[in-house]
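Suppose you are handed a protein chain with no further information: no name, no annotation, nothing but its sequence. What can you learn? This example shows the usual starting point.
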Amino acid sequence: MLSEMPTADTQDRLQAELDEARRQIAAMAAAHEAFLRGVSHDLRAPLRHVTSYGALVRELLQELPGQSPQVDEALDFLATMEASARRMGLMIDGLQAIARAGRAPLRLQALDLGATVQQARAALGGAGEGVQWHIAPAMPAVLADAEQLAQLLGQLLSNALKFTRGVALPSIQVRAEPAPGGRVQITVQDNGVGFDGTRARQLFEVFQRMHREADFEGVGAGLALCQAIAQRHDAAISATAAPGAGCSIRLDWPAAT
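A reasonable first move is to predict its three-dimensional structure. Written in structure tokens, the prediction is:
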């Protein structure tokens, strides 16, 4: 038996519910961005006080006549406090970058992915020397905001470079190929230290780290930023890795039509 077609009243009701759901999602997104902006802004003032007065305390301690073990210990404590303040500053910078990525207007256009990857590599400067780069000579065009795509690729290449540090023959590979449904599969792969692959989902949460800060710098905001950019482009980002076997970041991105 043929199913009944929805009536005009039913279609209107469903459309109204869909519109309301969209408004609620937009309101939640705006509230989230406002929260990030507010937190980032409000934390700056006390952080400036910590860093400014920390420097003054250091000067006073160093000017004391006849350095004592107690003064040396106090200077060590102060160094720890200053390092923590710098870390907090980087965390605030990360929150602000994520907030900006979420509210900046998107100027979508067809972009030469290969050229954008090469520009992101060139932006690394001398840091990329000594690495075996394998960048596919031809890549499909993608639909993206030029500034945000460059930011995302720069972050991915910088991460790959960081985690291959200390590897005898560091290698970074970037490739892309068309996928069904008008998509492009982009892969950034390195042969670095890797991490426990069962924790891969946590990698894109803000301030989540797979390694000790003493081993690799950073506060764990870069890949959260990449995810925010990907989501704005109706793209998906994922990772696979294993300890000592490197990491692969994959992007499922809209192709340019």
